[in-house]
Write a structure and sequence with these properties.
Number of strands: 5
Largest sheet: 5 strands, mixed
Helix content: 40-55%
Strand order of the largest sheet: 2-1-3-4-5
Oligomer: single chain
CATH topology of the largest domain: Rossmann fold
Number of domains: 2
Order of helices and strands: EHEHEHEEHHHH
Number of helices: 7
Strand content: 5-15%
CATH class of the largest domain: Alpha Beta
Radius of gyration: 23 Å
Shape: elongated
CATH superfamily of the largest domain: Resolvase, N-terminal catalytic domain
C-alpha cells in the first residue's frame, strides 16, 4: 500500500498542501496524512506519527519532497529506522528515490546530508546578514512585547495578582513578568 504524507510549515500555504495531496493521489497513494506544522517542531507532528504507526510490512511512505518529511539527517535516519523496522520503505517523488532498493537507501543518505549542509549554510548567511544590518543600524531586532505591558503588570501586581497569573492574563512569559517586577522602568 502506498501511504502519502504532505506537510506545509504554515496555515497560509493552502495551495501547497493541496498540490502535494493531488500529486500523492496521482501516484496511487491510498491513504493520506497531512498537516500544517513546522518541520522543526518534530514533537508536534502528529500526522507523521500516525502515518508511521499506520504503515505495515510491504507498505511505502510517499512524500513529494524530502524537506516535507525531515529537516535533519538525524531525523531522517530516525524515520528510516522506524520504516525499516516495520518492513516498509520510503519514496521521494521529486528525487526519484525509493529506499526499497540498496541504491535508493544510499542516495537518500547522501542527499539528506547535502540538504542539511545547504540549510546550515543558509542559516549562517542569514546570521551574517542580520549581524551586518545591526552594525549598520538597520536591524534592531523585534520589539520587546512584554515591556510594552509593564504598566499592566505593575497594576495587576499591586492588586495582589501573582506572577504566574499575570503572565497568563497578559499573554507574556513568566520570566518577563519577573524581569519587569525586578527592574521596573527599564
Amino acid at each position: 500500500m502506498l501511504i502519502g504524507y504532505a506537510r506545509t510549515s504554515t496555515l497560509d500555504q493552502k495551495a501547497s498542501i493541496e498540490g502535494q495531496a493531488r500529486e500523492l493521489a496521482q501516484v496511487g497513494c491510498e491513504k493520506l496524512f497531512s498537516e500544517q506544522v513546522s518541520s522543526v517542531d518534530v514533537v508536534n507532528r502528529e500526522q507523521l506519527a500516525q502515518a508511521l504507526d499506520f504503515i505495515r510490512d510491504g507498505d511505502t511512505l510517499v512524500v513529494t519532497k524530502l524537506d516535507r518529511l525531515a529537516r535533519s539527517v538525524k531525523h531522517l535516519l530516525e524515520i528510516m529506522d522506524a520504516l525499516t523496522a516495520k518492513g516498509a520503505s520510503l519514496r521521494i517523488l521529486n528525487m526519484g528515490i525509493d529506499t526499497g532498493t540498496p541504491t535508493g537507501k544510499l542516495m537518500l543518505t547522501v542527499l539528506g546530508g547535502i540538504a542539511e549542509f545547504e540549510r546550515e549554510i543558509m542559516l549562517e548567511r542569514q546570521r551574517e546578514g542580520i549581524e551586518k544590518a545591526r552594525r549598520e543600524g538597520k536591524y534592531k531586532g523585534r520589539k520587546a512585547t512584554a515591556r510594552a505591558k509593564e504598566a499592566e503588570v505593575l497594576h495587576l501586581k499591586s492588586e495582589g495578582v501573582g506572577p504566574t497569573e499575570i503572565a497568563k492574563r497578559l499573554g507574556i512569559g513568566r520570566a518577563s513578568v519577573y524581569r519587569i517586577l525586578d527592574n521596573p522602568g527599564q
